[in-house]
Design a protein that fits this description.
Blueprint lengths: L2 E6 L7 H13 L4 E4 L18 H11 L3 E6 L8 H11 L11 E8 L6 H13 L3 E2 L6 E3 L14 H21 L1
Parallel strand pairs: 1-2, 1-3, 3-4, 4-5, 4-6
Amino acid sequence: MPDVAVLVGSLRSGSVNRQLADNVARIAGDRLTLRQVPLGDLPMYDHDLWDDTPEAVTAFKEQVGGADAILLVTPEYNRYFPPVIKNAIDWGSKPMGANVWTGKPAAAIGATPGQLGAMSAVLSAMQLLTIVGCTVMAQPSVFFNHRDDMHDSDGVLTDESAREFLSGWVDSFAAWIERMS
Protein backbone atom coordinates (compact mmCIF):
# COMPACT_ATOMS: atom_id res chain seq x y z
CA MET A 1 0.00 0.00 0.00
CA PRO A 2 1.52 3.36 -1.02
CA ASP A 3 2.67 5.65 1.79
CA VAL A 4 1.48 9.22 1.17
CA ALA A 5 2.94 12.24 2.96
CA VAL A 6 0.06 14.67 3.59
CA LEU A 7 0.83 18.37 3.95
CA VAL A 8 -2.06 20.36 5.40
CA GLY A 9 -1.70 24.06 4.67
CA SER A 10 -3.57 25.23 7.74
CA LEU A 11 -1.98 25.21 11.17
CA ARG A 12 -5.33 25.61 12.95
CA SER A 13 -6.40 22.41 14.75
CA GLY A 14 -10.05 22.89 13.75
CA SER A 15 -9.22 23.59 10.13
CA VAL A 16 -11.69 22.40 7.49
CA ASN A 17 -8.67 21.26 5.47
CA ARG A 18 -7.40 19.14 8.35
CA GLN A 19 -10.93 17.66 8.49
CA LEU A 20 -10.74 17.00 4.74
CA ALA A 21 -7.34 15.30 5.13
CA ASP A 22 -8.64 13.20 8.04
CA ASN A 23 -11.75 12.20 6.09
CA VAL A 24 -9.76 11.26 2.99
CA ALA A 25 -7.55 9.08 5.21
CA ARG A 26 -10.64 7.36 6.66
CA ILE A 27 -12.13 6.83 3.22
CA ALA A 28 -8.84 5.55 1.77
CA GLY A 29 -8.99 2.52 4.04
CA ASP A 30 -6.58 -0.10 2.74
CA ARG A 31 -5.91 1.65 -0.60
CA LEU A 32 -3.45 4.26 0.70
CA THR A 33 -1.63 5.03 3.94
CA LEU A 34 -1.97 8.77 4.51
CA ARG A 35 0.26 10.31 7.15
CA GLN A 36 0.20 14.01 7.99
CA VAL A 37 3.60 15.68 8.10
CA PRO A 38 3.70 18.62 10.55
CA LEU A 39 4.55 22.01 9.05
CA GLY A 40 4.14 24.30 12.06
CA ASP A 41 7.65 23.82 13.45
CA LEU A 42 9.47 24.64 10.21
CA PRO A 43 11.27 27.98 10.47
CA MET A 44 10.89 30.42 7.60
CA TYR A 45 13.24 29.35 4.83
CA ASP A 46 16.70 30.85 5.27
CA HIS A 47 19.61 29.42 3.29
CA ASP A 48 22.00 30.34 6.13
CA LEU A 49 20.29 27.75 8.36
CA TRP A 50 21.79 24.88 6.35
CA ASP A 51 25.03 25.41 8.27
CA ASP A 52 23.22 24.21 11.41
CA THR A 53 20.08 22.57 10.01
CA PRO A 54 17.09 22.82 12.36
CA GLU A 55 15.83 19.45 13.59
CA ALA A 56 12.33 20.22 12.26
CA VAL A 57 13.75 20.63 8.75
CA THR A 58 15.70 17.37 8.93
CA ALA A 59 12.61 15.47 10.17
CA PHE A 60 10.42 17.07 7.50
CA LYS A 61 12.80 16.15 4.68
CA GLU A 62 13.10 12.58 5.97
CA GLN A 63 9.32 12.13 6.18
CA VAL A 64 8.64 13.57 2.74
CA GLY A 65 11.67 11.90 1.16
CA GLY A 66 10.63 8.50 2.48
CA ALA A 67 7.06 8.75 1.17
CA ASP A 68 5.86 7.16 -2.05
CA ALA A 69 3.67 10.15 -2.92
CA ILE A 70 2.56 13.61 -1.78
CA LEU A 71 -0.91 14.95 -1.01
CA LEU A 72 -1.16 18.67 -0.43
CA VAL A 73 -4.39 19.79 1.27
CA THR A 74 -4.77 23.55 1.11
CA PRO A 75 -7.07 26.30 2.24
CA GLU A 76 -7.36 29.39 0.11
CA TYR A 77 -6.18 32.76 1.37
CA ASN A 78 -6.69 35.66 -1.03
CA ARG A 79 -7.03 33.27 -3.99
CA TYR A 80 -3.72 31.53 -3.19
CA PHE A 81 -2.32 28.83 -0.96
CA PRO A 82 -0.95 29.88 2.45
CA PRO A 83 2.73 30.68 3.12
CA VAL A 84 3.22 27.57 5.27
CA ILE A 85 2.94 25.46 2.09
CA LYS A 86 5.41 27.55 0.10
CA ASN A 87 7.82 27.47 3.03
CA ALA A 88 7.61 23.66 3.26
CA ILE A 89 8.11 23.26 -0.47
CA ASP A 90 11.14 25.57 -0.37
CA TRP A 91 12.74 23.58 2.48
CA GLY A 92 12.08 20.32 0.64
CA SER A 93 13.61 21.55 -2.61
CA LYS A 94 16.96 22.63 -1.13
CA PRO A 95 19.92 22.46 -0.94
CA MET A 96 20.88 21.85 -4.55
CA GLY A 97 20.91 18.11 -5.23
CA ALA A 98 18.73 17.23 -2.21
CA ASN A 99 15.24 17.94 -3.59
CA VAL A 100 12.81 15.52 -1.89
CA TRP A 101 10.01 16.33 -4.36
CA THR A 102 11.71 15.10 -7.54
CA GLY A 103 9.84 12.27 -9.19
CA LYS A 104 7.12 11.99 -6.54
CA PRO A 105 3.53 11.41 -7.69
CA ALA A 106 1.44 14.16 -6.14
CA ALA A 107 -2.00 15.71 -5.90
CA ALA A 108 -3.40 18.89 -4.40
CA ILE A 109 -6.91 19.26 -3.00
CA GLY A 110 -8.58 21.87 -0.85
CA ALA A 111 -11.65 23.00 1.01
CA THR A 112 -13.29 26.28 1.86
CA PRO A 113 -16.77 27.23 3.00
CA GLY A 114 -17.03 29.27 -0.23
CA GLN A 115 -18.56 28.07 -3.48
CA LEU A 116 -15.25 27.68 -5.32
CA GLY A 117 -13.83 25.29 -2.72
CA ALA A 118 -10.20 26.50 -2.80
CA MET A 119 -9.95 26.16 -6.57
CA SER A 120 -7.44 28.99 -7.06
CA ALA A 121 -5.21 27.74 -4.24
CA VAL A 122 -5.28 24.15 -5.48
CA LEU A 123 -4.40 25.11 -9.05
CA SER A 124 -1.54 27.34 -7.85
CA ALA A 125 -0.22 24.60 -5.57
CA MET A 126 -0.34 22.09 -8.44
CA GLN A 127 1.78 24.43 -10.53
CA LEU A 128 4.39 24.79 -7.77
CA LEU A 129 4.51 21.02 -7.18
CA THR A 130 5.22 20.56 -10.88
CA ILE A 131 7.99 23.18 -10.80
CA VAL A 132 9.83 21.36 -7.99
CA GLY A 133 9.67 18.03 -9.81
CA CYS A 134 6.50 16.24 -8.73
CA THR A 135 4.31 14.48 -11.27
CA VAL A 136 0.95 16.00 -10.43
CA MET A 137 -2.45 14.39 -10.99
CA ALA A 138 -4.63 17.08 -12.55
CA GLN A 139 -7.92 15.17 -12.81
CA PRO A 140 -10.16 14.48 -11.06
CA SER A 141 -9.98 17.66 -9.02
CA VAL A 142 -11.18 18.22 -5.46
CA PHE A 143 -12.31 21.77 -4.77
CA PHE A 144 -14.36 20.89 -1.72
CA ASN A 145 -17.18 23.19 -0.65
CA HIS A 146 -17.18 22.55 3.12
CA ARG A 147 -20.49 22.79 4.92
CA ASP A 148 -20.94 22.01 8.61
CA ASP A 149 -24.10 19.98 7.89
CA MET A 150 -21.97 17.46 5.94
CA HIS A 151 -20.14 16.35 9.11
CA ASP A 152 -20.95 15.01 12.55
CA SER A 153 -19.79 16.79 15.71
CA ASP A 154 -16.37 15.06 15.47
CA GLY A 155 -15.77 16.31 11.90
CA VAL A 156 -16.45 12.92 10.30
CA LEU A 157 -17.97 13.30 6.84
CA THR A 158 -21.54 11.97 6.88
CA ASP A 159 -22.73 13.24 3.48
CA GLU A 160 -22.91 10.07 1.38
CA SER A 161 -22.52 11.74 -2.02
CA ALA A 162 -19.39 13.57 -0.80
CA ARG A 163 -18.01 10.30 0.61
CA GLU A 164 -18.63 8.56 -2.72
CA PHE A 165 -16.96 11.39 -4.62
CA LEU A 166 -13.90 11.30 -2.36
CA SER A 167 -13.74 7.51 -2.58
CA GLY A 168 -13.63 7.76 -6.36
CA TRP A 169 -10.91 10.38 -6.07
CA VAL A 170 -8.89 8.06 -3.79
CA ASP A 171 -9.19 5.31 -6.42
CA SER A 172 -7.86 7.70 -9.06
CA PHE A 173 -4.99 8.89 -6.86
CA ALA A 174 -3.99 5.32 -5.95
CA ALA A 175 -3.97 4.41 -9.66
CA TRP A 176 -1.92 7.57 -10.42
CA ILE A 177 0.66 6.63 -7.81
CA GLU A 178 0.87 3.11 -9.25
CA ARG A 179 1.33 4.42 -12.82
CA MET A 180 3.96 6.97 -11.83
CA SER A 181 5.97 4.68 -9.55
